[in-house]
Design brief:
With 988 residues, the protein is α/β, with parallel strands linked by helices. The protein is built from 42 helices and 30 strands.
């Protein structure tokens, strides 16, 4: 192999910068030892924090399509590698690692792009698929054919579901169908791994392949009987032989293994290599398969979904375990009280084994000891627990350095010993649970508690059942039971037990007293904690869920302050659903204290969707102004939900007093305007008609849903009318009519949109709607003086104008500026709120996509620079001796990064901005900056997504090109950081 050529390509594409490999790059033997394969031996690999892998293979001459097809098929079976680079001295070919093999020698149909003459095209290759292009998301926008929907886990799941439907359609019970499919997968894995060799198959059954065995009922019985005897345990109980499916069912399974179409009888390529597919992927595939219900698939209402159980993707498992298992010894015990099919337990077992080995060769004794003594799980579903046992056996075999001879691989049973079938709330009282989980000293204590407990809310019946097991004096969340499981798990913990649990986000951002109390109880008990907000990813991460998710990590960082709460936002990316990967930048992490959250609970929500400047502004405004609920109380009114008409069977309450009033329905309202020709309410009865008094004018009306964008839809009704439950309404006294109209302008402003994003219970993390409590929290100036102020008068004038015509963007801009004046906001606060409206737009797909488009150097980056200089000018003006100027590198629009240099001049002057023409590629720009500042820029960028590089009298800011990194609020916070770092440096 020509290492020089390979290193040149890696260096030119950012994987080997500054003469050293980035931390995530492995070369030579390390790369080859990283994976288990057949013929593919990579020369290098790079792995992202989300476990996505890029493989590099060097050949002195371009390899044949047949050979590349073999390599690519292995890469596809591995499941985590979207990209394979095949490098030869004169060419680099990039292949899609997620697209399914179709036939032998099919490499060309999976070729993404070729780069001829490496020396001449290295820059183009870097721009297309270099490390920065992949890390910043630019690559995924240029390679739309790479999609996880065609990856091995998705295709195998689809094929298994199709096979299951075939078997059920031919009168095989679903449980039996899933059992036989599971046994066949396990057996094929043993055969592909050569744990069960072809000669042994021939000796045992008279056949040399599993399909031929399945076509022979006697041979099938012999094989399963031998497997049950050999492996003991829980996957092949002796009863499985006695309940063998009919011959035609076994033939259909054999056809699946031979890739025979059941209708046409035609045979195609069987793409799966079970010795290459990682065991954790097999486990997760089978978990999804076992959770399925053919009768409920069209509605998604499987038993798992009804119980609030949602399949846990491996990328989230890695995120949790990376944190909570960091720094462990490997001797720790692990408990998952809602283990399902064991996806957390399998990965925990793997990591514990390697931690215990501490670099030494693995041994079967060490692996089995860890399996039998350190990994525990509980679940209500027997089927799920059996899959967990199956998955853990596979993991143990996968880890075994020499899984031979088969007779030596006899497993002890796990079910009833470390895997328990039962209710987590009472499992220690069961026959099997009592001897395992209890002792004279009390409940067994574990070192690590992980899992994804149910998020479900089961109505009154579920609430009543929860009350029976609820501990006294411990607050419980009002809806759902995720926190109940955490409280229960705490009974199996000691003071240093680490927690990593996926939960519904709702109780943490609830405005109800009981919800806040339940969340804060758990946070206090487990502090210090980290909350990871996953709500932006739920459309693909938990596609069956009806609520957003967070990860609760606790006690995993002993160096943190005891009352520290770290909040991490994981933003939406266009590649997330295609790659199942995350992006996190330093600006996505905020730290609070429990004291702050207890004093002002909305700060937790603000930290989950906003920045430090947002939190500071929320704090300032809520301290300076009474909230709207308080202002309403002074006027002896409140926000009310409107009429619920209901189904005819539920229309039991008298509504006759409302007859003849205009009826405001869902689509009637426009900003500041209610039509004169509303239909009349004509029902005598309704499900919830409400009091006649709430329908008396003037009524401030706010639409519940944010259907037209982030600004609430608000208008004032100057005549009595009935509004439906699509609206909230507050009846104000006739003397406060002007206050109603002023409030309509405030509630329609970017100020309100920003505040509801920061403080609303649901908007920003789940549904695009407002709740009564959200509106009541809005800080509002004293209404009568506000109406008489210059800003108030201007707002009332704008509102009168917009009652008569449709509001334009310019109208809303003028309204926003008047609201800013009403609240006496300075320019920095106005920047925060204007960007808040932009960030609120991310709740719609168009807004999200706009946020990740490349920032224009002359527009967004220039505005960012102006705001940054404004902060620095304010700081420098105290002495009036220096000024700062800026240089914006005018990089091509396709560049994955944007670069701005701020220079501190030792004299007074204007804060001017200069655009520097760039006549070289990005790598050259970074190299020159690094050389001048004596910093390895490219290497630093491999560890941090955003960089502030300080030099003598200068700072260079380097960030991804996406618009969301170059907002005004980003400039404010970057400037704050530079000031803080300068002060700290001066004191050092």
């Amino acid at each position: 192999m020509s290492a020089t050529t390979l290193e040149e390509v890696l260096a030119g594409t950012g994987y080997f910068p500054d003469g050293e490999p980035v931390a995530a790059l492995q070369l030579g033997a390390d790369a080859r030892n990283f994976r288990r394969g057949r013929v593919f031996m990579p020369d290098a690999l790079w792995r992202s924090p989300s476990s996505l892998t890029v493989y590099f293979k060097f050949e002195q001459s371009p390899p044949s399509d047949d050979l590349v097809s073999q390599w690519r098929r292995e890469v596809w079976n591995e499941g985590f590698a979207p990209l394979l680079w095949v490098i030869s001295p004169e060419r680099v070919d990039l292949y899609n690692g997620f697209s399914a093999p179709v036939e032998e020698g099919d490499a060309q149909r999976h070729l993404i792009r070729s780069f001829e003459n490496i020396d001449a095209s290295l820059c183009a290759l870097d721009a297309f698929a270099g490390r920065l292009a992949i890390e910043t998301g630019q690559f995924w926008a240029q390679a739309p054919t790479i999609n996880r929907k065609s990856s091995v886990d998705q295709k195998l799941l689809s094929d298994l579901l199709f096979l299951e439907r075939n078997l059920i359609a031919s009168n095989l019970a679903q449980g039996t169908a899933q059992a036989i499919i599971g046994r066949v997968i396990f057996t094929q894995y043993l055969i592909d791994r050569e744990i069960v060799s072809v000669p042994r198959l021939k000796k045992l059954c008279g056949h040399t392949s599993l399909p031929s065995i399945l076509r022979d009922p006697i041979a099938t019985g012999q094989l399963f009987s031998w497997l049950a005897h050999t492996f003991n345990g829980d996957m092949f109980p002796q009863s499985s032989v006695a309940t063998m499916p009919a011959q035609h069912h076994l033939v259909r399974v054999a056809e699946f293994l031979e890739a025979v179409d059941p209708e046409s009888g035609q045979r195609s390529l069987f793409p799966y290599q079970f010795d290459v597919i990682p065991v954790e992927l097999i486990s997760s595939i089978y978990e999804q398969f076992a959770h399925s219900d053919p009768s409920a698939r069209t509605s998604g209402a499987t038993d798992a979904v009804k119980n609030g159980v949602h399949y846990t993707r491996l990328s989230v498992v890695s995120l949790v375990l990376d944190e909570v298992m960091n720094g462990l010894t490997g001797r720790e015990t692990v408990l998952d009280l809602t283990c399902g099919s064991g996806v957390f337990l399998v990965e925990a077992l793997r990591r514990l084994v390697y931690l215990r080995a501490d670099g030494r060769p693995l041994t079967r004794t060490l692996i089995r000891s860890t399996l039998y003594k350190q990994v525990y799980g509980v679940d209500l579903s027997e089927a799920a627990v059996r899959v967990a046992a199956f998955s853990l056996y596979l993991a143990a075999l996968e880890l075994d350095p020499d899984p031979q001879p088969p007779l030596a691989l006899r497993f002890k049973p796990l079910i009833g010993r470390t895997l328990l079938i039962g209710d987590a709330r009472t499992v220690e009282q069961s026959e099997h649970g009592k001897p395992i989980l209890t002792s004279p000293a009390g409940l067994k204590q574990f070192d690590l508690i992980v899992g994804n407990p149910p998020w479900s809310f089961k109505g009154r019946i579920g609430t009543e059942a929860r009350r029976k097991t609820r501990k006294a004096n411990i607050p419980a969340q009002p809806r759902g039971e995720g926190l109940d499981f955490v409280v229960r798990a705490m009974e199996f913990s000691h003071e240093n037990t680490r927690f990593g649990v996926i939960l519904s986000a709702m109780p943490f951002f609830s405005r109800s007293g009981t919800g806040i109390a339940a969340a804060q109880h758990v946070m206090r008990a487990l502090a210090p904690i980290t909350l990871v907000n996953l709500s932006s990813l739920c459309e693909w991460l938990f596609a069956t869920a009806t609520m957003p998710a967070v990860v609760l990590l606790a006690r995993h960082r002993p160096e943190q302050r005891p009352d520290c709460v770290t909040v991490v936002q994981i933003p939406w990316t266009p590649s997330g659903s295609r790659t199942h990967s995350f992006e996190v930048a330093p600006s996505d992490v905020i730290q609070l204290s429990m004291r702050e959250i207890e004093a002002q609970p909305i700060k937790l929500k603000a930290a989950s969707v906003g920045r430090r400047r947002d939190i500071a502004l929320v704090d300032s405004l809520t301290s300076s102004y009474a909230n709207l609920g308080t202002q309403f109380a002074k006027l002896n009114t409140e926000m009310n939900v409107g009429l619920i008409r209901g189904l005819e069977v539920n229309q039991t309450r008298d509504a006759s007093r409302l007859k003849g009033l205009g009826l405001l329905q869902t689509q009637n309202i426009k900003p500041f305007h209610i039509p004169d020709d509303l239909p009349l309410f004509n029902l005598s009865k309704a499900e919830r008609p409400r009091s006649r008094d709430i329908y008396r004018a003037p009524i401030l009306i706010v639409k519940e849903t944010l259907s037209a964008g982030a600004r609430p839809l608000v208008a004032v009704a100057d005549r009595d009318l009935v509004f439906t439950n699509a609206y909230f309404g507050a009846r104000l006294p006739a003397a406060a009519r002007q206050s109603a109209h002023l409030l309509a302008t405030i509630l329609s402003s970017s100020f309100a949109a920003w505040f509801f994003l920061m403080a609303g219970s649901e908007f920003g993390i789940w549904k695009r709607r407002l709740l009564q409590n959200d509106i009541a929290l809005l800080p509002v100036p004293e209404l009568a003086p506000a109406c008489d102020s210059d800003a108030g008068k201007r707002l009332l004038k704008i509102e009168r104008t917009l009652q008569r015509r449709t509001a334009t963007l310019e109208d809303f801009t003028a309204l926003d500026e008047a609201v800013f004046e009403l609240y006496d906001l300075d320019e920095a606060d106005r920047v925060v709120i204007r960007d808040g409206l932009f960030r609120a737009s991310w709740q719609w797909r168009a807004g999200r996509e706009f946020s990740v488009c490349q920032a224009n150097v002359h527009e967004e980056v220039c505005r960012y620079t102006e705001v940054f200089l404004g902060v620095m000018d304010g700081w420098l003006s105290a002495r009036n001796e220096r000024h700062m100027r800026a240089e914006i590198f005018d990089l091509p629009s396709r560049s994955p990064l944007r670069v701005v240099r701020f220079v501190l001049e030792k004299r007074r002057g204007d804060a001017n901005i200069e655009f520097l023409p760039v006549f070289e590629e990005l790598g050259g720009v970074l190299a020159r900056i690094g050389e001048r500042m004596k910093v390895k820029i490219a290497t630093a960028l491999s560890a941090e997504r955003e960089l502030r590089v300080h030099g003598r009298d200068e700072v260079v800011i380097i960030k991804p090109a996406a618009r969301r990194y170059w907002m005004g609020i980003s400039a404010l916070e970057d400037a704050d950081a530079v000031v803080a770092e300068s002060i700290k440096g001066a004191r050092a």
